[in-house]
Write a structure and sequence with these properties.
By secondary structure, this protein is an alpha/beta fold. About 65% of the residues lie in helices and about 10% in strands. It has twelve helices and five strands. Strands 1-2-3-4-5 form a five-stranded mixed β-sheet, sandwiched between helices.
Length: about 300
């Protein structure tokens, strides 16, 4: 929607200049009575379960009511330009930020049209052109709704993507244990997607830190089968290509027995029973030694 011009939107919804003229004339009859529209709309909205959640503060309700009056005044100007599109996009983003659901928004739009036509617009307004004016108004409201929904969906998608990235970082917490030594404790189930995420995160951290040893602890992995073993082998080989040696720790007796029974070749994987053993080996590989004080 960001790439759409007002002209393209008008073309898509078949809005002509004659429609805009009718909407302006319609507005001349409705604008003086917009306060009635607000009263009717909020009498309806107070019945919604979401009302108290969004309008518990009377001052906020007053601001929103004024904004709605301004919105209809703008719409009845009958001008669809970049400013109109930008304001409607901002409204969609605001709805997404406060968590207003699209079904509630659609219901409010439908009720607004009903109130304007059935309760606010004088019966004798526009005469024979009334039906054509209402069709023109509906088309502009459809443009408005399309812009708002697109902006709402885009912002919601961005929020979900951000949450997914945060979860990925939590699920692959690569930690610098020491200079040249990184650690990743893996917990849960490793499937193809998660293995890909682990590899990407691990290789990125190796590139950033130029680490020489990477300890991957799998004591929290619930199941190790052929697929999981193959994923671990691929990750190990990728690290080696970047000049970093992978030490696999946390291999339990049950996991070791399963690997043997399945006939999985893990000769390419350098494993240790515990994280402590892996850490000692990691220090040795980077030329360091840990001693007790006084020794």
């Amino acid at each position: 929607m960001e790439s759409m011009t007002p002209a393209l939107l008008m073309q898509r919804h078949e809005i002509l200049e004659a429609d805009l003229v009718l909407v302006r004339e319609l507005g001349s009859h409705i604008e003086p009575r917009l306060s009635e529209y607000v009263d009717h709309l909020y009498a309806w909205m107070r019945q919604l379960p979401e009302y108290d959640e969004y309008f518990l503060d009377p001052r906020r309700a007053e601001r929103v009511q004024r904004a709605q009056v301004d919105y209809w005044r703008e719409l009845f100007r009958g001008v669809i330009d970049e400013a109109f599109v930008a304001r409607r996009r901002a409204t969609g983003e605001m709805h997404a930020r406060i968590g207003l659901s699209l079904p509630t928004y659609f219901a409010a739009v439908d009720m607004s049209l009903t109130i304007l036509v059935d309760r606010v617009l004088p019966e004798t307004a526009l005469g024979e052109r009334k039906a054509a004016a209402l069709r023109a108004l509906t088309k502009i409201v459809h443009i408005d709704t399309a812009i708002v929904v697109h902006a709402y969906n885009r912002l919601t998608s961005e929020k979900l993507a951000g949450q997914a990235r945060a979860l990925l970082e939590l699920s692959t917490p690569v930690t610098a244990l020491w200079e040249d030594i990184l650690l990743l404790p893996v917990i849960g189930i490793i499937d193809s997607r998660r293995a890909h995420d682990i590899m990407r995160s691990v290789l990125q951290r190796i590139a950033e830190t130029r680490a020489k040893v990477f300890i991957m602890d799998i004591s929290g992995v619930s199941v190790v089968d052929t697929a999981v073993a193959n994923h671990l082998i691929k990750i190990t080989k990728a690290m080696r290509l970047m000049g970093c040696e992978c030490l696999l720790s946390g291999v339990s007796p049950a996991v070791a027995q399963t690997v043997i029974e399945l006939g999985i070749d893990i000769s390419a994987v350098n494993s240790r029973a515990t994280m402590r053993d892996a850490l000692e080996e990691g220090f040795r590989r980077v030329g360091m030694e840990v001693k007790r004080i006084g020794q």
